[in-house]
Write a structure and sequence with these properties.
Helices cover about 25% and strands about 35% of the residues. By secondary structure, the protein is of the alpha+beta class. The chain has one domain. Strands 1, 2, 3, 4, 5 and 6 form a 6-stranded antiparallel beta sheet that branches.
């Protein structure tokens, strides 16, 4: 079910990226405010790492995470959330793909 590994990072106003804490990601997954079944296929795995099913759209996930983190005051003004699917290499090994754009 959780076939994708997604990097979840907080990017500050200066462009410095840090993994989002597991507690933030877990809070989103446990108290998902969207009532959108598509996010049922998510599993917090570690700081900056979320495992998802194949049907979870990254654009909607990014927007929902950022909205939730803002509501919880986890993000400062100028901060944003960046998500990127980790590329699989050699079986279960994963390496981070560069973010789009």
């Amino acid at each position: 079910m959780f076939v994708r590994k997604i990097a979840v990072r907080r990017v500050d106003a200066e462009g410095q990226a840090q993994p989002c804490p597991l507690a933030w990601i877990d809070n989103f997954a446990m108290r998902n405010f969207t009532n959108d079944a598509v996010f049922d296929d998510t599993l917090p795995a570690a700081d900056g790492l979320l495992e998802t099913g194949a049907r979870v759209p990254l654009e909607r996930l990014q927007a929902a995470l950022e909205d939730w983190f803002r509501r919880k005051s986890y993000l400062k003004a100028g901060d944003r959330v960046e998500v990127a699917e980790l590329a699989r290499q050699d079986g279960d090994q994963a390496a981070c793909s560069p973010p789009p754009g």
